[in-house]
């Protein structure tokens, strides 16, 4: 079966007393995929990751890895390895001994062991650091040791629990690229837990967004960003203008709505469409609205007054009041054409494409 | 204002079923706990039981009686011993805490990078044999002792004084010395916990060094003071070595009476009643002291 | 850090602390001083340097017996209390369970009980059970009072021990026993050594329990107690006391070094001790 999922999560629930850490979660992760579990703290993402790794047990439901049910199989006999949030580098061992820790159990031929250690250290650019003690490593280096120590075991699945959260911004961005490259090189399925939406968007093949123990949406980064299934998901992944609209018609795949300001719009039906008539929420990302310069025209445009502006270096955030709309629109404009020179109070026109408008559940 | 906070659900970071955790924890704790149960709780229960019995020579009569307590509380010799032990242990506790506080304060606030070295230095004398330290005080305070020799040498006194040894003062000095560290450490710990920005805030709001100390530092270290008082007061009430070696006639404390009943006098029930009475009285006194101190601390604003 | 308050140009607080330290060390340092003094009466002025009191010890069989007894009791008490301490400290730091608080309270109770009460209670039980008083009963008593100290030292070593280290070991394929052997034990070894040394020192110096619970065999403090009645034996006792003092000091310094190493290991970043 070529399409057999690497990890199959079927109706997994985990309760602590009366508290539902995870509520009927189902998920299928493909072989070789870089998969992210994204959500605010307490959403159940770490619980799910720890259950995959064998550090927690589902109250109900099943977890299958590479076709093998994981019920009753302890962490030390699972084909998974974990990069811990704290990295959990053994402080009494040096880098090499840390990497060799799991290999010792396998009783490999010494030359083979040596080769695998060197290979793993080279993979994470730590060649030559073998004799360093854990106490002598920087945060980024410790993270690399944790990676090498897990990868050297050649797991079917590598689990990463917020691996970049302890690093500063610059190093974090560098490690995002490296992790992604590394994953493509080794071809192992990566499951990453993060609360940072940019991290998830930048690295993943697919993302599962979670709230309050439930999986809200599973999709590729671009889809999840542009077609969020509900307001919560839309809000969690960056800015979004929410526009009230009234339903005027629908067919099997699309709905037609009458919006404030944007007129009558047809958009694909949202995935969690309740099927009921009445009020609908429409969203549009701030960067999908564009400022029109004096001579420019567009097929779809709005005009309004700048009521506030926020400068962010490469971009400017304009807050624009549109007559006939109850809330002002956020517009993100790059500064290469002088958006940072637009003063508060200026009358401007804004262009948009109707297909950037997305209907979503509340 | 109080905020109702529901019991937080077990953090997802702790794996394993709660029941397993309960069982594993209990299993791991039980050897030590059982040892304490058999070697401490049970013997104390046996003592309590004996205190309600009577003894003639070697036979124990197990009919319930409060006679031993009547004797312990009304016989002048025991009553006086108990009172003296209580007053002594309270005096020692307060004196020790009073003398120790500035030391703990100095280490915590001015110790800088020598903090742990200073703490270690302070701790060493406490680890040397208690018996030997008491003996040493005997050498210092005696008629021909170091103190008298020194005072004679400097001409402060003309002949050796007998005022230093074999009295209550000698017991007080020796015990204050012996329990110094046990007062310094808890106070030090509570001083370390005082957020230094609170003191800066008090200065910022106009308090001088003394008001700042009285209104911020001292109230915040009350838990440490209480711990120090209890740690010193309770064990000293039953001290045996010090009164015997340096106490003389006035310095005898209740422990000697208890020892006599168990060793030579062989009236176990009376000895048991004396032990139980001592424990109860010292607990009551300690708890009242703590309550009083808390109340006083609450009044400082 | 606030500046030390000064008055008349003198740092009174520092002066007070200095005097207090002198007060603490005075009795401790007098013992060695007089143990080398030629006179049989510990008094000033010193009359001359001598080793004779130390030489005298070597030819006192009762003292040598007591020393051997103390060593045996100390080792037995240290090992037992450390083993019990490991169980309790691990249970207290790693698990949360119902009954944990009262159980810990009982285990730590000897810290705040008058020793005479513990001694009397144990003596009463031993006598009622008709058990022969011996060094074994002393060991049991010493274990009881050493366990709270062991637990305190060990908790410091176990705490801050990142639990994910053990999880990482399991994740890398190690069994529960293997994890204990390869990760937990090496990490807490310094704390264990420290606990052994501290317990041994407590047992070595303990008098009341030994006095009540021993049969015919004396430990060193019990032997010293017996000698105190004879003024002529005082210099010998001072010499013996000095040896015990130096031994305690050495053992505790080693214990302290190990304790710090344990604390450092538990905190890789050294945040607490920096």
From TrEMBL, chain B:
The chain crosses the membrane at residues 33-53, 86-108, 114-132, 169-191, 212-234, 270-293. Residues 82-291 form the ABC transmembrane type-1 domain. The keyword Transmembrane helix applies. Pfam families: BPD_transp_1. It is found in: Cell membrane. It comes from Aquibium carbonis. One of its GO terms (biological process) is transmembrane transport. CDD domains: TM_PBP2 (cd06261). This is ABC transporter permease. Belongs to the binding-protein-dependent transport system permease family. CysTW subfamily. Keywords: Cell membrane, Membrane, Transmembrane, Transmembrane helix, Transport. InterPro entries: MetI-like, MetI-like_sf. PROSITE patterns: ABC_TM1. It is a multi-pass membrane protein. One of its GO terms (cellular component) is plasma membrane. The lineage of its organism: Bacteria, Pseudomonadati, Pseudomonadota, Alphaproteobacteria, Hyphomicrobiales.
UniProtKB/TrEMBL annotation, chain C:
It is a multi-pass membrane protein. The keyword Cell inner membrane does not apply. Its main location: membrane. The keyword Cell membrane applies. SUPFAM superfamilies: MetI-like. InterPro entries: Bact_Polyamine_Transport (IPR051789), MetI-like (IPR000515), MetI-like_sf (IPR035906). It is found in: Cell membrane. The chain crosses the membrane at residues 12-34, 71-93, 105-127, 133-156, 191-214, 234-255. GO terms for cellular component: plasma membrane. Keywords: Cell membrane, Membrane, Transmembrane, Transmembrane helix, Transport. Residues 67-255 form the ABC transmembrane type-1 domain. GO terms for biological process: transmembrane transport. Belongs to the binding-protein-dependent transport system permease family. CysTW subfamily. This is ABC transporter permease.
């Amino acid at each position: 079966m070529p399409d057999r999922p690497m990890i199959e999560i079927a109706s997994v629930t985990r309760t602590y007393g009366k508290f539902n850490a995870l509520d009927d979660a189902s998920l299928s992760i493909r072989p070789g995929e870089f998969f992210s579990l994204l959500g605010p703290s307490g959403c159940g993402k770490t619980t799910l990751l720890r259950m995959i790794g064998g550090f927690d047990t589902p109250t109900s439901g099943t977890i299958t890895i590479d076709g093998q049910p994981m019920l009753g199989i302890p962490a030390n006999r699972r084909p998974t390895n974990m990069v811990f949030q704290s990295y959990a580098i053994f402080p009494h061992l040096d880098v090499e001994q840390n990497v060799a820790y799991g290999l010792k159990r396998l009783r490999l031929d010494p030359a083979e062991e040596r080769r695998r250690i060197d290979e793993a250290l080279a993979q994470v650019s730590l060649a030559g650091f073998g004799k360093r003690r854990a106490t002598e490593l920087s945060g980024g280096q410790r993270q690399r040791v944790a990676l090498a120590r897990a990868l050297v075991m050649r797991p079917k699945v590598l689990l990463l629990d917020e691996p970049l959260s302890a690093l500063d911004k610059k190093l974090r961005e560098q490690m995002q690229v490296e992790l992604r490259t590394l994953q493509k090189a080794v071809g192992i399925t990566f499951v990453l837990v993060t609360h940072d939406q940019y991290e998830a968007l930048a690295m993943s093949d697919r993302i599962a967004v979670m709230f309050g123990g439930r999986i809200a949406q599973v999709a590729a980064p671009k889809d999840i960003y542009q077609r969020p299934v509900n307001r919560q998901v839309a809000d969690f992944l960056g800015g979004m203008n929410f526009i009230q609209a009234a339903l005027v018609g629908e067919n099997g795949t699309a709905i037609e709505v009458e919006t404030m300001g944007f007129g009558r719009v047809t958009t694909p039906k949202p995935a969690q469409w309740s099927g009921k008539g009445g009020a609908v929420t429409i969203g549009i990302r701030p960067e999908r609205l564009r400022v029109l310069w004096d001579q420019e025209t567009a097929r779809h445009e709005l005009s309004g007054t700048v009521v506030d502006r926020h400068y962010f270096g490469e971009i400017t955030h304009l807050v624009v009041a549109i007559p006939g709309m109850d809330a002002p629109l956020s517009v993100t404009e790059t500064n290469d054409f002088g958006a940072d020179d637009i003063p508060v109070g200026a009358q401007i026109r804004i262009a948009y494409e109707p297909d950037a408008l997305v209907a979503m559940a509340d | 204002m109080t905020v109702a906070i529901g019991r937080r659900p077990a953090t997802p970071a702790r794996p394993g079923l709660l029941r397993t955790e309960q069982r594993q924890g209990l299993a791991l704790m039980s050897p030590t706990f059982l040892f304490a149960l058999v070697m401490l709780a049970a013997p104390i229960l046996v003592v309590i039981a004996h205190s309600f019995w009577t003894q003639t020579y070697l036979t124990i009569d197990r009919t319930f009686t409060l006679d031993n307590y009547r004797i312990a509380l009304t016989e002048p010799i025991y009553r006086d011993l108990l009172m003296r032990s209580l007053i002594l242990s309270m005096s020692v506790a307060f004196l020790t805490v009073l003398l120790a506080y500035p030391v703990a304060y100095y280490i915590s606030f001015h110790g800088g990078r020598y903090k742990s070295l200073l703490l270690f230095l302070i701790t060493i004398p406490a680890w040397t044999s208690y018996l030997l330290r008491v003996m040493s005080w005997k050498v210092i305070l005696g008629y021909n002792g170091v103190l008298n020799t020194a005072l004679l040498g400097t001409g402060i006194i003309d002949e050796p004084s007998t005022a230093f040894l074999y009295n209550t003062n000698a017991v007080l000095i020796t015990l204050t010395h012996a329990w110094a560290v046990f007062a310094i450490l808890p106070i030090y710990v509570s001083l370390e916990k005082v957020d230094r920005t609170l003191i800066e805030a008090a200065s910022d709001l106009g308090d001088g060094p003394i008001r700042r100390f009285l209104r911020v530092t001292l109230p915040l270290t009350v838990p440490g003071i209480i711990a120090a008082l209890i740690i010193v007061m309770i064990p000293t009430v039953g001290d045996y070595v010090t009164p015997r070696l340096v106490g003389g006639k006035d310095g005898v404390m209740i422990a000697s009476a208890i020892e006599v009943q168990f060793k030579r006098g062989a009236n176990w029930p009376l000895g048991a009643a004396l032990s139980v009475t001592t424990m109860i009285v010292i607990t009551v006194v300690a708890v009242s002291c703590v309550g009083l101190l808390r109340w006083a601390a609450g009044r400082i604003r | 850090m606030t500046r030390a308050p000064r008055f008349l140009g003198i740092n009174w607080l520092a002066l007070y602390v200095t005097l207090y330290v002198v007060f603490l060390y005075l009795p401790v340092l007098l013992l060695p001083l007089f143990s080398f003094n030629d006179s049989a009466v510990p008094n000033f002025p010193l009359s001359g340097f001598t080793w004779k009191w130390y030489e005298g010890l070597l030819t006192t069989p009762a003292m040598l017996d007591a020393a051997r007894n103390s060593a045996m009791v100390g080792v037995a008490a240290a090992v037992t209390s450390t083993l019990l301490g490991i169980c309790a400290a691990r249970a207290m730091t790693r698990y949360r369970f119902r009954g944990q608080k009262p159980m810990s309270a009982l285990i730590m109770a000897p810290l705040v009980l008058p020793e005479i009460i513990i001694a009397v209670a144990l003596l009463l039980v031993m006598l009622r059970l008709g058990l022969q008083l011996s060094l074994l009963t002393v060991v049991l008593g010493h274990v009881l009072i050493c366990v709270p100290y062991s637990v305190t030292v060990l908790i410091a070593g176990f705490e801050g021990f990142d639990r994910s280290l053990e999880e990482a070991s399991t994740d890398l394929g190690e069994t529960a026993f293997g994890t204990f052997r390869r990760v937990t034990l090496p990490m807490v070894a310094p704390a264990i050594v420290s606990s052994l040394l501290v317990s041994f020192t407590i047992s070595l110096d303990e008098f009341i329990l030994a006095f009540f619970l021993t049969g015919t065999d004396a430990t060193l403090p019990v032997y010293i107690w017996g000698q105190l009645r004879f003024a002529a034996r005082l210099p010998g006792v001072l010499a013996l006391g000095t040896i015990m003092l130096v031994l305690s000091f050495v053992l505790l310094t080693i214990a302290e070094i190990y304790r710090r190493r344990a604390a450092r290991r538990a905190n890789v970043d050294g945040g607490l001790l920096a």
